Structures are given as C-alpha cells and as structure tokens.
Amino acid sequence: MEVTNCRDCGRLFNYISGPRRCPECQKKLEEKFQQVKEFLRQNPDSSISQTATENEVSVKQIKQWIREERLVISNGMAEGIVCESCGKPIRTGRFCESCKKTMVQDLSSAFEKPKPVERSLHTEKENDRMRYLK
Ligand SMILES: [Zn+2]
Ligand SMILES: [Zn+2]
C-alpha cells in the first residue's frame, strides 16, 4: 500500500490502484457521473460544453467518460469526439465501429500464429473481449 495525495482535494490517502483520487472524491465523482448521465437522458441533444456548464463538471471529465464508453453523446462531430484511428466522428469510446472490427480481426489473426503458449493466449483474449464489450 502507498500513501499519496488525492489529485482532487490534496488529502493524503492509502492508494491502491486506478486514478489517484481519495475514496471521498471518487464517490463525489461517481455521483456527478450519475447526474450527468441523467441529464443526458433528459437532454439527449445537449452539447458537451452545455452539459459541463449545467452540471458543473469540466469538459475534460465529460470527454473522458465518453472515451471510457460510459457516456454516449448524440453528435460526436460537433464536439470533436473522433475515432483515434481514422478520425471519423463517433458518439462514444475511442474508436469507430469499423476500426474496432478491424482491430478485433487483427487480434484474432495474431492469435492464430502458433507461437505463444496456450494459457497466456487465453487470458489475453479474455482481456480483449472485456475491453471491447465494456
Ligand atoms: Zn480527494
Ligand atoms: Zn475509425
């Protein structure tokens, strides 16, 4: 265990993993997320900056939630949320559907090579599946 400063409030806390945020700030952020999610449910056409102002959250934080695929916005193009691979506007996550598909194919063709040991191959495949479906 490691003691570190919370990056939001500066308090010392026992750091285990993930973002360097104390449990209290983590909880607050999670409540904020639920609030934003609800706001977007009721105002599906809101822009990111509008959502940020209305909910007192930073635009950066909202974009991060979008990249984490926790939020889906109605119009990625207007907000510069684009596929990190081909630059196409997307509504959530980091890549567009077709790039995701290509990547999954690339991965599975890589797995067809007989080189790596069966066991590690399996765990890697599990991880990838989780990442893409989350
Ligand atoms: Zn904190
Ligand atoms: Zn793409």
Automatic annotation (TrEMBL):
Domain of life per record: Bacteria
Alphabetically ordered keywords of this record: Cell projection, Cilium, Flagellum
Disordered: annotated span: 114-134
Protein name listed in UniProt: Flagellar protein
